[in-house]
Specification:
The complex is a heterodimer of chains A (270) and B (203).
Chain A: H1 3-6, H2 8-15, H3 26-53, H4 56-61, H5 69-134, H6 137-153, H7 156-169, H8 172-178, H9 184-200, H10 205-224, H11 227-230, H12 234-238, H13 243-269
Chain B: H1 6-11, H2 14-22, H3 26-48, H4 51-67, H5 78-101, E1 103-104, E2 117-118, H6 134-144, H7 147-158, H8 163-170, H9 174-202
Antiparallel strand pairs in B: 1-2
Helix pairs in contact in B: 2-3, 3-4, 3-5, 4-5, 5-8, 6-9, 7-9, 8-9
Chain lengths: 270, 203
């Protein structure tokens, strides 16, 4: 008697049990569960992707594909740092030193330029004096007396104003443009030049009248504005530069500075 | 598979259907659900004794199939693989349930001498004597069986699977399966006889 036959009765009882069937909404519920599961999976995937995304450092440090990348990058960074400290900083210091030395040379150069300018001015002055000396004696005497009266009786500034009037009439403007940054001494020379010009135009009657009138005016002004009375020195006044000369001086100085700077830059470049 | 009708799917074997489903053919999955839903619910119901729980567990089994379809390999029968999933899920669920429902009365009544360990998962034969129908009596008897006998008896005598398949599903040697089935039947027989005796005595 086999085991199957021995328990035949109990087997039949078990087989006769009613088969439990799934409910009618079983499939619908199953599909709902599947949809929910899919949504959860999708969200989990998105969250995981966002977490994995991270920042640059996180991605870099968690790079499992190339683990040697981190020490390699660290080593190169250290090498760059050492290179910067040893070479680049030293170069900057050297440049600074050379720049300071160049500055000194430029200063000396500007001084040289100024001396050259002075030489040029003095040369011009000497030329003018020579031209005055070559003039006839009468005229030179007039010039001397005139210059004396100019120096003794009038202020330099007033004299300059008068000179401006002369400039419009005569060729003094040429002289002025040739020598833009002349000093007070030049002013004196200009006045004498004017007198020279005046002396040249003695033969002309209108010019003579004008000169006479102006001399009168100057003497009147000299009386009223005596340097002793006014308490001002003619020379100190005459040292004040007018607008034109000031501008020209600034322009020249700018030029000098630029050239000096260019020299410095050239030396730095080398 | 595009262009296939429902009748075409019905003619296909389980293995062909799961292969189609592995190629993202949802209709094949629906066909598998139609084929196995009643069998699965019945199997789980006989194991748990609760209709709602059995339906939930059956749905979870199909869900597991949906998610892990790529794990199926053609060397095994689909039914064996599918019952294995169902049995594992049901075992896990019952273990959790038993752990949760096992209560120690001694925790609340320290003064009393009695120390009962009541497990609500199993129905005692005396309690089931009042059951209305014989089917309920048998179900109560099955539910009160030791789980290791219960699962093999359900698979053999209710689901009508052969010994080899049961051996694969339970991952037990064939001899162990046979002995467990016989021992389970013996226990069940004794339980049912005792129930009948108590019933006749009452009458």
């Amino acid at each position: 008697m086999s085991d199957e036959e021995k328990y035949l009765e109990i087997r039949e009882k078990l087989k006769s049990l009613e088969t439990i069937k799934a409910s009618s909404n079983f499939t619908n519920n199953l599909h709902l569960k599947i949809v929910e599961e899919e949504a959860l999976r999708r969200n989990a995937h998105i969250k995981k992707y966002d977490d994995e995304k991270g920042g640059f450092l996180r991605n870099f440090l968690s790079n499992k594909q190339y683990p040697w990348l981190i020490p390699a990058v660290g080593f190169t960074m250290v090498i760059f740092f050492v290179f910067y400290v040893t070479y680049v900083n030293v170069d900057i210091e050297q440049l600074e030193k050379s720049g300071s030395s160049n500055g000194l040379t430029d200063e000396s150069k500007t001084a040289d330029n100024n001396s050259g300018l002075k030489n040029y001015e003095s040369k011009n002055l000497s030329d003018l004096k020579n031209s005055i000396d070559n003039l006839p004696k009468e005229n030179s005497e007039n010039f001397k007396s005139q210059s004396y009266t100019d120096q003794g009786n009038f202020k330099g500034r007033e004299l300059k104003n008068e000179n401006k009037n002369y400039q419009s009439k005569q060729d003094l403007s040429l002289i002025e443009t040739d020598k833009p940054n002349v000093t007070s001494a030049d002013n004196k020379v200009y006045t004498s030049e004017k007198t020279v010009e005046k002396s040249k135009s003695v033969n002309e009657p209108d010019a003579e009248d004008n000169t006479k009138e102006k001399d009168m005016k100057l003497t009147e002004l000299g009386k009223s504005k005596n340097p002793v009375e006014s308490g001002t020195d003619v020379r100190s006044e005459s040292f004040l530069p007018d607008d034109k000369t000031e501008k020209i001086m600034h322009m020249k100085l700018d030029k000098i500075d630029k050239t000096g700077l260019e020299n410095i830059l050239d030396k730095i470049g080398r | 598979m595009p262009g296939k009708t429902e009748t075409d799917y019905k003619t296909l074997t389980d293995e062909e259907l799961i292969l189609l489903f592995q190629q993202e053919d949802v209709k094949a999955f629906n066909e598998l659900v139609n084929r196995y839903k009643d069998r699965l619910v019945n199997f789980i119901f006989r194991y748990t004794g609760n209709k709602e729980e059995s339906e939930d567990l059956a749905q979870d089994t199909f869900l597991r199939l949906y998610k892990s379809k790529h794990l199926y390999v053609e060397i095994a029968k689909f039914s064996t693989w599918f019952y294995t999933i169902a049995l594992n899920l049901t075992r896990t669920y019952m273990n959790k349930k038993n752990k949760m429902k096992t209560t120690s009365i001694s925790n609340y009544y320290d003064d009393e001498e009695k120390d009962y360990e009541l497990t609500s998962g199993y129905i005692l034969p005396d309690d089931s004597a009042n059951a209305a129908t014989e089917g309920e009596i048998i179900q109560n008897a099955i539910s009160s069986l030791n789980p290791k006998f219960r699962e093999v008896i359900i698979l053999r005598d209710i689901q009508d699977l052969d010994y080899e398949e049961i051996s694969k599903i339970t991952s037990l040697p064939l001899g162990t399966v046979k002995s467990r089935i016989n021992r389970g039947r013996e226990c069940l027989k004794e339980m049912l006889e005792s129930l009948h005796k108590s019933k006749t005595k009452k009458q």
